[in-house]
Amino acid sequence: METSPTAIVAAVARCRAAARRAGHRLPAVLAGSAAWGRERAIMLAEHAGETLWIGEAAPAGIPATDAGRVRGWLGREQDCLVFDAHTGFDPDALGAAAGLPRAGGMLILLIPPLAQWPGSTDPAAERIAVHPFTAETVTGRFLARAARLLGEADDCLLAQQDGRLRLPRAPRARPAETGPPGDDPCRTADQRHAVEAIKALCTEADPAPLVLTADRGRGKSAALGIACGELADRPLQIRVTAPRKPAAATLFAHAAERLGSDRPGVHPIHSGGLQLAFEPPDALVADRPPADLLLVDEAAAIPAPLLEAMAAHYPRVVFATTQHGYEGTGRGFAVRFQATLDRHHPGWQHLELVTPIRWSRGDPLEALVFRLLLLDAEPGPADRLPPADRLAPPEWLDRDRLLDDEGRLRSLFGLLVLAHYRTTPLDLRNLLDGPGISVLASTSGEAVAGTALLSREGGLDDELLAAIFEGRRRPRGHLLPQTLSAHGGLARWPALVGLRIMRIAVHPGRRHRGIGQRLVNRATQRAESEGLDFVGASFGATPGLLAFWCRCGLVPIHIGLSRGQSSGTHALVMARGTSERGRAEVAVAQRRFRRRLAALLGGPLTRLDPVLAAALLEAPHPSPAALDRHDRQELDACAHGHHGLDAALPTIQAFLDGALADPAIVGNLERGERALLVARFLQHRDWPQLRQCFALQGRREGTEHLRRLLARCLDPPRG
Q1: CATH 3.40.50.300 matches 419-618
Q2: Which of 474, 649, 677, 700 is most buried, most CB within 10 Å of its CB?
Q3: pLDDT value at residue 651
Q4: Which of 714, 643, 652, 651 has the alpha carbon at shortest distance from 677?
C-alpha cells in the first residue's frame, strides 16, 4: 500500500518541529517512482517555506536550478531543498547543496525504489563514462552503497512507495553553547578566538603564518571579515585572495557590515586608515603588492607553489580552508603544507573552528552527507600498519568486494583524500564504477598503506586518430594518449593500449619506504603480462615527483606549456613501454621531447622553474649528437676567455643538452648552479630576473660566474 501524501506531510511536520527545537536540519528520502516522489515533494514544499528545487523536472512556481549550477547558490540559505536524483545523482552537487538548508530546514532527496536504484540508468553517470561507454553501461556500485546507507540510516526520514515509513530517531536537545556576549558579532567562542588571533598577528614582533581550518558552517570566512572590521582603527593595507573572487564574498560582506560600507560584493573598502582589497592569487604572487596583512580564503584550492610564495613574501598571512568539503579537502592541504611551514616558518600557528554556527552540533543532515560521500574519510592510524618490509605484496582489489567492506573503503578513500586536495565525491563514484578502472593496494586488514588507481586507456579506432590529432574530436577519457596526440604531435598514441596511473598515495606514516615504487612495479608487471603497450602517468611536475617516477622506470615524454589551474604546475607526462611496440613508441616520444625541450625553454616555458627544467634535462634520454672540434674551441673560449656568451648561444645550448644528463657533470654542480645555467642559456632570462632568482651581485660578476660553471662542465672530475 502506498504511503499517503497526508501521512508523509504529517510525519515530516512532526520531525521538522523536533529538528527545529534541536537546531538541526531534517534529511528526508522519498523512494519511489519519479512521479510519486515529485508529487509528494511538491506537497511538502508548500508547507516548508523558502524552497529550491535541484533537477531538470522542477515544477512551475518553485525556484530551480540544475546540478551543474548549484555552486551559484552557495552563500544563500533555504528552508527546504529538493534534490531530484531521478534526473541524475551528482555527488558533487549533493555535497555542495547540503550546506544550503538552515537550522530547522530540510533536504528532500528523491530517488527510485531502494532495491531498483542500483540497476537503473543514472544520467549523471555520463560524467565517468569514458569512450566508448555510456551511462547505461556504467555499473551501479556507488548507487548500491548509497541505497544501503539510506536504508540503514536511523537519522533520516525514509518514505517508500510500497507503504513503509521510517521516522528518524528523536534528536537530542540543543546543547548549551557558551559563546561570546550578546553584542559580539562572533557567534561562537571558536570564532572569537580566531578573530583575536588574526588581530594579534598584526602586532607580533616576530610574526608567523596562521592556519585556520573548519568544516562548513563554522564561520571561518566570517571570522576573517569580522577581524578586518575590528582593525578599522589602524592604518593597514589588507589584501584578500581566494581561488575565485566570489569565494571571498562572505569575508567582504562581514567586513563591510563592521566597517559601515554600503558597497555590496567583493569591492575595495576604505575606512579610516584601513584599506581592504581583493587580489587574484597569480597576480598577487607576480606583482607582490604591499600588504600589512594577507588573508587567504579556501587556501586548499590554491596551488601549493603560490601558497609557498605568499608565505615567503608576506610575514603576516592567514591561510583559511575548509577541512572536509565537496570540492576537496583541507585535510590533505594541512598535512602537505605543514611540512613546508615547518621547514620555512617553524613558529606557525594552527586553529580549528569546531562549533557549528548555522546549525547545532550533531546535525543529522551533515552526518548523513558525510557518510554518503565519505567527506570525512581518514586513512587510519599508522600504528595499525606493520613495518613496510613486512607488508604483503600489493594486491588488485575486487570492487564488488570493496563495496561490501566499508572499513577498507573508508581507509582507502581517506588515503586518496589526504594525498590530493582536489579529491571530490565524484572520485568516489569513479573508484567504484568507472569503466576501465583498477584499484591496487598494499593493505593489512582494513588498514591501507598505499594505493594506486589505474585507468585502461587507448585502443581507439583508426577513424578517430586523425580527428584527435587535428583537434576535431576529444572523446571522453583516455587522457594520456589523447594528450600525446593533440598536444605532443604523436598521432599514433591513441591506438596504443596501456595503463595510466591516475592517483597514487602512500600513508604518511609509511612514506619513503619503497611502497609507492612497489605499486608502480606491480602495475608494470600487469601491463606486461596482459600484452599492453605502456604504463604512464600525468601529474603536476615538481623535481621530487619527477625523481620518483624516474626511479620507477618511467621517462618524461611531454610537458604542458601552461600551468594547471588547480595544481599551479605544468602537467608532465611520463611513460614506460611494456611491449615491443610500446617501447618503440616511448623511445620515439622520448627523443622528440628532448629535441623540443630546449626550444620550449626559450619560448613558452621560459618561466618554468629552472630547477625543474634542469631536472628534466638530467632525466635519462638518448645521447645527443656529439660536438665537433669547432664547438669545443668555442666553448673553451667562453669558459676560459672572453668569447661572447650570446654569440655562442647555439653551441652552449647543444652542449648543455647532453652535459646536464652526464652524472659526472651533474655531480660537480650544485642544484642551484645547474638551474642558473638553464635559466641563462636555455630560458634566456634577463639579468634582472637572474639577479632576483639567484642572488647575483651584478652582470659582470654573474657573467664570470657563468664562465666558471661552464669550465666545470667542460672538465668534470672523472672517478
Answers
A1: no
A2: 677
A3: 86
A4: 652
d(CA 149, CA 333): 29
**CB distance 459 to 475 below 8 Å:** no
- Which triple of cell numbers denotes residue 234? 589602524
CA angle 377, 71, 421 (to 5 degrees): 35
Predicted local confidence at residue 457, as pLDDT: 98
Measured CA to CA, the distance from residue 122 to residue 139 in angstroms comes to 10
Bridge partners (DSSP) of residue 450 are 442, 506
Contact indicator for 306, 566 with CB cutoff of 8 Å: no
Residue spans of alpha helices (H) in 314-363: 330-344
Q: Do domains 189-353 and 419-618 have the same CATH topology?
A: no
What does the chain come to in residues? 719
- Runs of H (alpha helix) within 610-682: 610-618, 629-640, 649-659, 663-667, 671-677
How many Cβ atoms sit within 10 Å of the Cβ of residue 419? 20
Over residues 466-488, the pLDDT tens digits come to 899 988 899 999 999 999 998 88
Report residue 237 as a C-alpha cell: 593595507
Task: Please identify which residue in the block is written with the cell numbers 591496487.
Answer: 440
Helices within 360-405 (DSSP H only): 364-373, 399-403
C-alpha cell at 379: 586513512
Q: Where exactly are the structural domains of the chain?
A: 5-166, 189-353, 419-618, 629-714
Q: Count CB atoms within 10 A of the CB of residue 470.
A: 11
Integer Cα distance of 368 and 100 in angstroms: 15
Query: Judging by DSSP bridges, how do beta strands 274-278 and 293-296 pair with one another?
Result: unpaired
> DSSP letter at 120?
S
* Residue 168: Cβ within 10 Å count: 21
Within a 10 A sphere around the Cβ of 206, how many other Cβ atoms?
6
> Residue 37's Cα: distance from chain center in Å?
35
Alpha helices in 487-609 (DSSP H): 515-529, 543-551, 580-601
Class of domain 5-166: alpha beta
Judge whether residue 533 has pLDDT over 80.
Answer: yes
Sequence-ordered list of residues with C-beta below 8 angstroms from that of 615, at least 6 positions apart, any chain: 543, 546, 547
Q: Strands (DSSP E) along 3-75, which ranges?
A: 26-31, 51-54, 64-65
What is the pLDDT confidence band of residue 445, given thresholds at 50, 70 and 90? confident
Q: For residues 473-509, b (16+ Cβ closer than 10 Å) or e, as one string?
A: beeebbbbbbbbbbebebeebbbbbbbbbbbbbbbee
Burial (CB count <10 Å: 0-12, 13-18, 19+), residue 565: exposed
> Grid coordinates representing 447?
588498514
- CATH annotation of 189-353: 3.40.50.300
Give pTM, 2 decimals. 0.86
Closest CA to 19 of 318, 465, 362: 362
pLDDT for 396 beyond 90: yes
